[in-house]
Design goal:
This protein is α/β, with parallel strands linked by helices. It is built from twelve helices and 13 strands.
């Protein structure tokens, strides 16, 4: 692991998710840019001192020298955005697979270079768009892909948060500080942090790709350097249209990520705050409710593959995160043994989704700053 030391929120999420299915063990880390903080973090995680490193450069080089079977198999990068590209590049160049947080890189140029590296090395990269890991999101994707609702016409996706309604970055809040800092976050604030999640979810569930967008981007909190609110009109490659909303100044909201997709004959509705439930709406009959659980014959094989508990037992964010890690681990192990991974194992966001996410950030900010109505995603 690179980053994710003491006081880091997302590091513990990644570690918990990675070990949930017994496929992955944490063996080493460079947990902070401060070597002493890294040492203390490794000590708290009961790692041997010689596998706790003062920098990711040191870790990658020394791990490469260890015998196969002892050295790390892949690296998880859980740092702020500006420290995504270089460790990922070094890991790939030295033969290590990569899991990393979103957005994939600091800018589009880095994303294109990283995609080229993945293509050249033929190594695996997983981007942790965790919301695509929920079983009922898998079910929605399968229903739409199977033509259940006919041609898709409309996509609505919204991600309201309220935690940045106050200028927390001016009060020493670590998470707020780097997310609102252009030098560490990149050119987008809310649109980079949660807007990319919403865009990825819209494409994943609908099975379509965003081709054009028209954005209204706002900075609501006085003195903030990056956007904290925005709305985007979308056009998809099959002719469907959509609306994306991402805001971090909706006071009182937590993480109310919600998606609705409508076709000719009906559609779906899913809300992360009721993640076990998928509403299936029909033009000619009452709404149906599907629920996560071991319902063989009722939900798709893909949804079952990503379900751990019997019906009625809540599965949430950690399990969705863990689904990405498990599928990634199964894929890496299969390829190492010269086998072809099963389709359900390959179901995790990768470098292509990462590049599309960076293009979304670039174009949505450009649209928000322009008088031009529509901008194409190249």
């Amino acid at each position: 692991m690179i980053g994710g030391g003491k006081g880091a929120f997302i590091g513990s999420i990644h570690r918990t998710a990675a070990r949930m299915d017994g496929q992955i063990e944490l063996v080493c880390g460079a947990f902070s840019s401060d070597p002493e903080k890294s040492r203390k973090s490794g000590e708290a995680l009961y790692l041997p001192p010689d596998r706790v490193y003062g920098s990711y450069d040191e870790m990658i080089q020394q791990e490469r020298e260890l015998p196969e079977g002892e050295r790390m198999d892949f690296v998880a990068i859980v740092t702020p955005n500006h420290v995504h590209f270089d460790p990922a590049k070094q890991a790939l160049q030295n033969g290590f697979h990569v899991v990393m947080d979103k957005p994939m890189t600091f800018d589009v140029d880095e994303a294109r270079r990283l995609k080229q590296l993945v293509d050249d090395t033929r190594l695996s990269l997983c981007l942790t768009h965790a919301y695509t890991g929920y079983p009922m999101i898998k079910e929605a994707r399968q229903m739409i892909a199977g033509g259940t609702f006919g041609e898709i016409r409309k996509v609505y996706v919204e991600y309201p948060q309220g935690w940045l309604s106050a200028p927390l970055e001016q009060e020493g809040n670590k998470q707020a500080s780097w997310r609102t800092d252009p030098a560490r976050s990149g050119k987008a604030g809310a649109m980079g942090d949660i807007g990319t999640h919403a865009a990825d979810l819209a494409e994943y569930v609908s099975g379509q790709q965003i081709t054009k967008l028209c954005a209204d981007i706002n900075t609501v909190v006085e003195g903030r350097a990056l956007d904290d609110d925005g709305s985007v009109l979308l056009k998809f490659n099959n002719g469907a249209s959509g609306v994306l909303i991402a805001t971090q100044v909706a006071a009182g909201e937590e993480n109310c990520l919600k998606i609705r997709v409508y076709g000719e004959r009906g559609g779906i509705e899913w809300n992360q705050e009721e993640a076990n439930k998928l509403r299936v709406k029909w033009a000619d009959k009452p709404t149906e409710i599907k629920r996560t659980g071991d319902n063989v014959g009722y939900i798709s094989d893909l949804a079952l593959h990503n379900t751990r508990t019997p019906a009625g037992h809540p599965e949430g964010y950690l399990e969705a995160f863990a689904n990405l890690y498990r599928n990634f681990a199964l894929t890496v192990k299969a390829r190492r043994e010269g086998k072809e991974p099963k389709p359900e194992w390959l179901d995790f966001p990768g470098v292509d989704e990462g590049l599309r996410g960076m293009l979304f950030i670039e174009k949505v900010i450009a649209s928000g700053q322009s008088d031009k109505k529509w901008i194409e995603l190249e």
